[in-house]
TrEMBL record:
PROSITE patterns: CLAUDIN. The keyword Transcription does not apply. Belongs to the claudin family. The chain crosses the membrane at residues 87-106, 118-140, 162-185. This is Claudin. One of its GO terms (cellular component) is bicellular tight junction. Residues 1-28 form the signal peptide. The gene is Cldn16_0. Its main location: other. Keywords: Cell junction, Cell membrane, Membrane, Signal, Tight junction, Transmembrane, Transmembrane helix. It is found in: Cell junction, Tight junction; Cell membrane.
Length: 188
């Protein structure tokens, strides 16, 4: 496998894994404003809900109940999928680092190093699919929630948008998938 391709895949995998981790840890998966005057800005996430007063910039956050408490399905499923995607992407990065040609580990056996890169690509692909499913699951649920309010004429100035954490999760998952394709399909 060419060293340039390996380094490119590693860089993309590293950046995408950081995006996935950041998306999992941050709390702006769904954004809504309570009024048409944009007095407050509310972000809902996987772990808490934060409201920012637009006039003075004061931000207050409410933690969700215990992780063992009953939560909506979209939060539980998204948490599970994103944490699993983070763990798989981290494992793939560790495997990929050891499989890089520029690393001295197993330098005398290039066949094993090539298999390690291939294995890292497969693990990265699994993690990217789980992360993408989690991000899209949450986004679809936000869309359905908004559509239900509009169809029942309960709109009342409230609008829902996908937050930057949701977009970050999708971008990280897509980047991990591209890196896995580079590692599994472009080897020689």
């Amino acid at each position: 496998m060419s060293a340039a391709l390996q380094v490119t895949a590693f860089g993309l995998a590293l950046l995408s894994t950081l995006f996935l981790l950041l998306a999992t840890c941050t709390d702006c998966w769904m954004v809504n404003a309570d009024d048409s005057l944009e007095v407050s800005h509310k972000c809902r996430g996987l772990w808490r809900e934060c409201v920012t007063n637009m006039q003075d910039g004061v931000r207050t956050c409410d933690q969700y109940d215990s992780i063992l408490a009953d939560h909506p399905v979209k939060i539980v499923v998204t948490r599970t999928l994103m944490i699993t995607a983070d763990l798989l992407a981290g494992l793939a990065l560790a495997t990929l680092v050891l499989g890089l040609d520029c690393i001295m580990f197993l330098k005398e056996d290039p066949c094993v190093k090539l298999k390690m890169c291939y294995g890292a690509g497969v693990i990265l692909c699994a993690g990217s699919i789980l992360g993408l499913i989690g991000s899209v699951w949450y986004a679809v649920d936000v869309y359905v929630e908004r559509a239900m309010l509009v169809s029942h004429n309960i709109f009342l100035g409230v609008h829902y948008d996908f937050g930057w954490s949701c977009w970050l999760g999708m971008a990280g998952s897509t980047g991990c998938f591209v890196a896995s394709v580079l590692l599994t399909c472009c080897r020689y």
